[in-house]
Predict the 3D structure of the following.
Amino acid sequence: MKNRNILSSAAQNALPSGVRKMFELAKNYDDAINLTLGEPGFTAPDYVIDAAIGGLKDRKTKYTPNAGIKPLRDAIAYKLEKENNIKCDPDKNLIVTAGATQALMLAMVTLVNPGDEVIIQGPNWPDYKGQIDMVNAKTVYAKVDEKNGFKMTADIIEPLITDKTKLIIINSPSNPTGGVLDFDDLKEIAELVKKYKVFVISDEPYEKLVYDGFYQHSLASFEGMEDYILTINSFSKTFAMTGFRIGYICANEKITENLVKLHENMIASVPEPMQLGAIEAIYKGEDDVKMMTDYYDRNRKLIVEGLNKINGFSCHMPKGAFYVFPNITGFGKTSQETAEYILEKAHVVTSPGSAFGPDGEGYIRICYASKYEDIKEALKRMENAFGLKQN
């Protein structure tokens, strides 16, 4: 049989992570300050950990229902109605997944056929492109930049819609830019969705990490969205539970029925002790989320103010997530060259914008979720290496 020993096109075309590349290069510097990975600067709260440990001690080590345990689905449905104005029947519209990453892959497999077009923001979280490739679909980039606050708005999306468009992915607050979509932005996208009757994934893992009084609305809360919107969220970023791998999808009943079938083929179910921890996060986590967000806000102001004083950088103030995406064209190098140059001269590890798609060129990503003192030291090193701008 011809091509029997050839790997899939998705595997062959997958690009190595630009973030991980910098992570590996940093190993050559014992004193490197690492501002690359999108990892919260906290660990999960004690009550979350205690609930998971309690589940293990109670021997809750069996399979759970494919859609997740009922108490967690009830808790998520409560959260969605209270905080997002989304009515979501826990028995018909919800499925618990292995983090938002698996939720996205599951949704992609459920919605997209080979040859379909999927519109995503450029620059974007690189896993979107990887997953689109895995279902043999075509990525269409909706380019954004600091001029409009890195917002993927309806007027940017609409010219890209064709008869092959099957799915649009919205990510607000955004990784890697920290850009957010406000109420009016989302309302216009909702009208676009109804006009073209296209599926939309609203990927919302950073929804609570917002600043300056901003409130992140959910696209699914707008009237008439029931048949088109899949809301995906996670406990990873908001509650510092990245290792728990708990995410979820809320969608209409027909879509959810198929999500559950395919989910069984992928991982069957998420470990019950981790689900028990997630329940506690929903009901007890409000104060901790505020504490962490306030901490990130302090770091955000420090990093933006500091970068804008240093030669080569021009940094937009983000309203969400815990990333800045400064323009580094002032260095006269590619984003990869600039990231390596910063590492070499200042021993500070950043991520090249090119790691986030072709539209990320000219930028780097810096995660400010780490220690305040580390960010201060990183800025000091970069000041010494590149000098301050003249007033």
Q: What stands out?
A: The two ends are 69 Å apart (CA to CA). The chain is about 40% helix and 15% strand. The CA atoms of residues 48 and 281 lie 6 Å apart.
